[in-house]
Design goal:
- The protein is mainly alpha-helical and 81 residues long.
- The protein folds into two domains: 35 residues, no CATH class; 32 residues.
- It contains three helices and no strands.
- It is elongated, with a radius of gyration of 27 Å.
């Protein structure tokens, strides 16, 4: 019901937007922006190594080792040229 009203009223709102002064346009835009964009929230990116299995830790070690080897090979190639 409310969704239908908003959908039906939207074209008129777009027309009326152009009739607002720049300050009102800016205020309306910023007020509506909070409904169109996700809100940022703090996220902890810490890794809990104590909670990882041996297999998960081994995968991390293998990945880091492979990356370090690839970077070493790239550095060796750059110095040869």
């Amino acid at each position: 019901m409310i969704g239908d009203f908003l959908t039906d009223a939207f074209p008129k709102m777009v027309e009326e937007f152009d009739n607002l002064d720049p300050h009102q346009q800016h205020k309306l835009f910023t007020d509506l922006l909070t409904y169109g964009l996700p809100k940022l929230s703090s996220v902890s990116m810490g890794v809990q190594y104590d909670n990882m299995t041996d297999r998960e830790l081994q995968q991390i070690i293998e990945g880091l080792t492979a990356k370090a080897s690839a970077e070493d090979e790239e550095t060796d190639t750059d110095t040869e040229n």
